[in-house]
Q: What sequence folds into this?
């Protein structure tokens, strides 16, 4: 998708930086705070602004309900209902999708009738492409609910793991803060050059995603009969791919269970090498929003570390619950922020 390509993301780094800076500005200091709701709201606003620009405030409440519907749907149930059964969770999701589509439809029609399509992702979808021509209205409305939730759902889960590592590895957090100190005082002035200069911060984000990929289980369908290790996989079979274990393979990563962001600063640790980094998928089904997610998470990490020292609660029990439904997440994660001098 044109609006999610790396060059499109690079052109709008200032907008992304402004949104992620608000996350740091709004974090209460001196108290244990549940961090995932704060991170989700911040990234939700950034993602919606990236997708819909000035129309984002109108659609934001509907996007929040879409996310809630997704969370309800993936909660564990005593019964494994067939996909065609209209369970309460599925009906709730359908209602929220309809509500989002009904709110989006007049925006699409207004932009097309006025000719002011916009430079955001929606605007790019409204323009004809050499491959698909002019997309039908229904095709746009069908695609955008899923794209909208994906823009902030996985990054929000990743943000929890990143903040936890900033708290547990203060020396690494200090290196991030030193890089972030060179960012413009006005986040809106941040450019792709500034983002590229955050090399250690990007390495830290990538290392956290290697150890704790939010999308920890992927599915792929074999297009032909093939041999994998000692197994024969028939054409049409569904294969489960687990990035969590694949990215801890000692054949690809030395000390695979150790948190070591420096590994990504070496050429040998290039994420472009097949099988090395699967947190955003790979191949033709890789996440189209990977560049946007990395920009959001890198700037969120840098701006948080520049402002604060993070720490876990003083209580002996764990500060979060590990959940795997819908993604690998730090449910209930609580952290404390103190101002960095």
A:
């Amino acid at each position: 998708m044109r609006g999610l390509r790396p060059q499109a993301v690079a052109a709008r780094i200032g907008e992304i930086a402004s949104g992620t800076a608000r996350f740091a500005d709004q974090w209460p200091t001196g108290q244990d705070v549940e961090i995932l709701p704060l991170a989700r709201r911040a990234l939700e606003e950034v993602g919606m602004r990236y997708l819909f620009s000035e129309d984002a405030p109108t659609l934001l409440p509907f996007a929040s309900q879409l996310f809630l519907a997704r969370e309800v749907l993936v909660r564990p149930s005593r019964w494994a209902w067939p996909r065609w059964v209209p369970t309460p969770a599925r009906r709730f999701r359908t209602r929220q999708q309809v509500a989002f589509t009904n709110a989006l439809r007049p925006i699409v029609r207004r932009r097309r009738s006025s000719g002011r399509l916009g430079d955001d992702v929606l605007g790019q979808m409204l323009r004809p492409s050499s491959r698909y021509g002019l997309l039908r209205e229904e095709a746009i409305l069908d695609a955008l609910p899923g794209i909208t939730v994906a823009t902030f759902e996985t990054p929000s889960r990743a943000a929890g793991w990143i903040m936890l590592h900033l708290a547990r590895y203060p020396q690494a957090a200090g290196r991030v803060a030193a890089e972030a100190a060179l960012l413009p005082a006005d986040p809106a002035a941040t450019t792709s050059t500034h983002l590229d200069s955050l090399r250690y911060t990007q390495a830290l984000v990538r290392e956290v995603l290697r150890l704790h990929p939010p999308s920890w289980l992927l599915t792929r369908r074999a297009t032909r009969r093939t041999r994998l290790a000692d197994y024969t996989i028939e054409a049409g079979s569904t294969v489960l791919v687990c990035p969590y274990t694949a990215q801890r393979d000692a054949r690809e990563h030395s000390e695979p269970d150790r948190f070591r962001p420096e590994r990504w600063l070496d050429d040998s640790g290039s994420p472009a090498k097949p099988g090395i980094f699967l947190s955003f998928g790979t191949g033709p089904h890789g996440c189209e929003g990977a560049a946007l997610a990395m920009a959001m998470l890198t700037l969120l990490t840098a701006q948080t570390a520049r402002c604060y020292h993070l720490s876990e609660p003083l209580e002996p029990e764990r500060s979060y619950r590990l959940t795997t439904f819908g993604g690998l997440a730090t449910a209930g994660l609580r952290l404390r922020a103190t101002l960095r001098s």
About this structure: Residues 2-215+247-339 form a domain with the Cytochrome p450 fold (CATH 1.10.630.10). The first helix runs from residue 6 to 10.
